[in-house]
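To illustrate the input format used throughout this study, we show a single complete record. The first block contains the structure-token representation of the backbone; no residue identities are included at this stage. The design step must infer an amino acid for every position from geometry alone.
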């Protein structure tokens, strides 16, 4: 019996380790691999979208296609179903809310969070009538390709559920009726997969921003070639008319042109690709940079880096993936797309070596030697009410939330001047529950308030397709580039300046005005600005209502909704009318991680439990897009769902906690002294009686 047990254990372990989806095993067996830790040196031939080997010396050579080039050795079909590609796949668990795609249109003040994963407070592009091509053209510059804009339409996809197909049918019908959505797939081709955007070696010359520029020019097929730097691309597909036919005679002359750098090619026509198996941090940062807005102004040196990166770790050390590229997100309770738990890659799994009381590691330290937190004196209740990241991640909790900037939303990577106040405004570090459940612990969150044009019918607010909104409101707003700036730009006419300053001072330069004159001019400009904003906004809302008879036009900004007040002004919708249409989109953050000495509570209980502690007392002020809008601040406890009075009573108990400790220890020592004196006195009495 003793000999049989080890054999049964080996067989059981072999079965567990050998289990994996059959298609994954067979797919791996069809491709050759080097399986060497040193990696493989990639001197390879280039192939175009037709799987034809590219000759760089030929006249007007085609751009190279990574799917056909890399796909000769790698299972591209399986790779392109990972987390960065499968937003359309309804079979993949959405998991907790993550970073949204934000449709930016500064011309109309539209900043709308979108997600095909139907995360709370985001909008599904299909429900807004957006085509897959539009989404790919708008966001593809910060995606690795494939996924959106590359596969079959939702209505015919086998991955789509019946409900999603119905949504697509409704969206298609609305698009046919209104004819404002765009699909130029026949001109641009599908959005290609570019493996190098993640797997290039830092310093190799690969430029992810070149990829972004080409996608924005609608040069989909040419983006990998330009980004890799193996050739230059001239021409702009976005300038071609919607009825352009790439197959027509002479059409090739109007398409972009590729000129390969012949110095990059070997005599046998092969090109060297300097790549790495595990993506570098720089590759991740291009799309996933989040930094305090203050750092934009040259104060980056004042902000600390994530403690894990300071220790020499890489993003991909925790955010791992197999050949299927289902990248681990690392949150508690995460389930892999194939169904197994990812608990070992969470904070608890790594640092404690256990999850929900189940030991994942046999040793007394965490995985890979991660330090085990002691949390001396911290009551267990805190582990039920707070996540690990609540104390250890994001900016230090202050009375006001830090404003942040992000790669995809604010186009970090583009060489322009920034001031940190770019819209849409994002704030980070608000400790909020992940769900509406009373049992949900607090996590640090980022918040983004949407702004968009919409129509309201029977109490329901439905956003307009952003391009449809632009066509309706552009004449009324008279804005060319920036809604917030241009709508607020005013210049007093000379006649009004004469009324204020007099004829003799009306022509004086601004720097020569007196303080009193400057105040008078500013007051007049403020009045003119208020009138101009109201006039143009009313005209824009009226234009929408003309196009949608029987429905009320609404503009959402900064947590508020605005409608026409007759033909003269604006009025705000009350909370009951507005519903949750203006609520912020919130998603939990995990980085940057702070060390234990900088964690919330490192300076004692009063970090949280005092009368003015930010945890329960900060106010969250929405960031508005409409000029001169003053949104009301929201107390953090209202967003947390916490009883403010109960929290205040509890915090008052901590006011005398230190004194209570002193008194308590004093009473304990006094009791010990009395007890010791009593013992000595009784022993003395005993020995005296014995002696007598």
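Output of the design step:
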């Amino acid at each position: 019996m003793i000999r049989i047990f080890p054999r049964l254990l080996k067989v059981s372990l072999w079965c567990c380790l050998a289990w994996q989806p059959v298609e994954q095993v067979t797919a791996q067996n069809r491709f050759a691999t080097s399986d060497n830790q040193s990696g493989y040196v990639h001197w390879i031939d280039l192939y175009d979208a037709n799987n034809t080997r590219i000759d760089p010396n030929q006249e007007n050579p085609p751009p190279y296609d990574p799917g056909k080039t890399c796909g000769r050795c790698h299972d591209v079909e399986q790779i392109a179903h990972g987390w960065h590609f499968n937003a359309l796949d309804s079979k993949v668990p959405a998991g907790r809310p993550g970073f949204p795609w934000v449709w930016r249109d500064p011309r109309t003040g539209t900043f709308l969070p979108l997600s095909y994963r139907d995360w709370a407070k985001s909008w599904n592009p299909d429900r807004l009538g957006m085509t897959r091509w539009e989404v790919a053209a708008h966001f593809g510059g910060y995606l690795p390709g494939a996924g959106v804009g590359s596969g079959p339409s939702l209505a015919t996809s086998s991955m789509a559920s019946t409900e999603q197909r119905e949504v697509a049918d409704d969206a298609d019908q609305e698009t046919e009726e209104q004819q404002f959505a765009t699909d130029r797939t026949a001109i641009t081709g599908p959005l290609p997969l570019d493996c190098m955007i993640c797997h290039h070696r830092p310093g190799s010359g690969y430029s992810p921003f070149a990829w972004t520029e080409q996608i924005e020019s609608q040069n989909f097929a040419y983006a990998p070639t330009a980004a890799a730097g193996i050739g230059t691309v001239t021409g702009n597909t976005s300038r071609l008319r919607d009825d352009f036919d790439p197959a027509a005679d002479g059409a090739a002359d109007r398409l972009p042109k590729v000129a390969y750098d012949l110095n990059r090619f070997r005599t046998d026509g092969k090109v060297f690709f300097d790549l790495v198996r595990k993506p570098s941090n720089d590759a991740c940062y291009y799309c996933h940079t989040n930094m305090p807005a203050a750092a934009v102004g040259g104060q980056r040196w004042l902000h600390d880096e994530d403690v894990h990166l300071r220790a020499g770790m890489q993003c991909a050390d925790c955010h791992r993936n197999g050949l299927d590229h289902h990248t681990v997100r690392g949150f508690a309770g995460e389930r892999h797309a194939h169904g197994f738990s990812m608990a070992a890659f969470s904070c608890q799994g790594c640092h404690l070596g256990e999850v929900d009381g189940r030991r994942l590691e046999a040793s007394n330290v965490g995985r890979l030697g991660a330090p085990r937190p002691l949390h001396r004196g911290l009551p267990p209740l805190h582990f039920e009410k707070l996540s690990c990241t609540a104390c250890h991640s994001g900016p230090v909790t202050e009375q006001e939330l830090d404003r942040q900037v992000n790669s995809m939303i604010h186009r970090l990577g583009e060489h322009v001047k920034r001031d940190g106040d770019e819209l849409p405004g994002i704030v980070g570090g608000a400790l909020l529950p992940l769900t509406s459940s009373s049992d949900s612990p607090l996590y640090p969150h980022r918040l983004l308030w949407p702004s968009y044009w919409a129509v309201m019918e029977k109490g329901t607010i439905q956003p307009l397709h952003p391009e449809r909104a632009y066509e309706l409101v552009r004449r009324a707003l008279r804005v060319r580039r920036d809604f917030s700036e241009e709508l607020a730009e005013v210049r007093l006419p000379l006649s009004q300046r004469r009324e204020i300053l007099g004829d003799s001072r009306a022509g004086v330069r601004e720097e020569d005005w007196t303080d009193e004159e400057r105040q008078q001019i500013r007051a007049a400009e403020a009045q003119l600005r208020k009138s101009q904003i109201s006039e143009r906004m009313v005209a824009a809302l009226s234009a929408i209502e003309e196009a949608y008879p029987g429905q009320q036009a609404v503009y959402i900004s900064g947590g508020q909704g605005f409608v026409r007040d007759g033909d003269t002004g604006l009025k705000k919708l009350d909370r009951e009318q507005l519903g949750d249409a203006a609520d912020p989109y919130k998603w939990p953050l995990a980085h940057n991680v702070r060390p234990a000495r900088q964690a919330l509570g490192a300076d004692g209980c009063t970090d949280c439990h005092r009368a003015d502690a930010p945890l329960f007392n900060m106010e969250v002020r929405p960031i508005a897009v409409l000029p001169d809008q003053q949104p009301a601040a929201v107390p953090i406890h209202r967003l947390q769902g916490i009883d403010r009075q109960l929290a205040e009573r509890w915090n008052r108990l901590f006011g005398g906690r230190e004194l209570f400790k002193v008194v308590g220890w004093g009473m304990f020592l006094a009791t010990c002294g009395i007890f010791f004196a009593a013992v000595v006195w009784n022993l003395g009495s005993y020995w005296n009686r014995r002696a007598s």
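Structural context for interpreting the output: Confidence is low (pLDDT under 50) at residues 1-28, 152-165, 171-178. Residues 230 and 261 are 6 Å apart (CA to CA).
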